[in-house]
């Protein structure tokens, strides 16, 4: 994919207007209060694997609507005292996969809490899932998750997902092995978008690792990329021509630009300049609105894979520096 978005010099200063509903904060406050009426009931079941240096737990907890959400919780074996914990949110279509997919952070001395995204994990990407989405959508939808409930913010799919992500932080913070003052949210693509939202919604979050984030600057994304998942929105609107205003109003409650404007904690972003799935201007739009201390790693020659393992190394160094660890 060639360069197709704004030049890097313009991207660094790109600060788009935000379409923010007047009741944005009230909407999320009420949503989270409603979710917390359900008992969190977090369960950590030891998972039998012959790992010498890592303890693995099969996790479940109560998310939006009282629904059970699955995940993994991994700890470096023999670690002393409460540990910083990285919340890992997963990319579009992927499930929680296998424990060996998540060994980076325990090997660096951190706990990691992997939250599965409800309804995902059936895509052909090798990472199976175990969590459904019991809530049905009131409106017709295009295949995929992007238009599920899109005509009503209270019914939209990502209201449930973002709420699950906040509840996952609640679960991690209550675990005795976790230092609740050092919880980090992170993920790539959809996971990056979820992390970006959760950092704004949960006051216990200490830092954010936001890689090539999805779910950000929706209107520009659908105007300049021909790739999925944003094209799910285009296919829906090309059929339901009468619903565009209503759909974009719903999306404004979930747009990463609006969450980024509420981001106060340190954040490490990444962007790939040839990314036609999450275009660079959508990433820089959020990054430039982020209000806390921030850094961004630019990968000029990469598509949506971004920095891959190189970015993972950047993240480990970033958190070690942030937490003053050797």
Automatic annotation (TrEMBL):
The annotated active site, in chain numbering, is 189 (nucleophile), 275 (charge relay system), 304 (charge relay system)
The GO terms this record gives for MF are: carboxylic ester hydrolase activity
Renumbered residue ranges of the record's region Disordered = 121-143
Short name of one Pfam family: AXE1
| Domain called Acetyl xylan esterase: residue spans | 1-321
Residues holding substrate: 92
Protein name according to UniProt: Cephalosporin-C deacetylase
What is the originating organism of this protein? Nonomuraea maritima
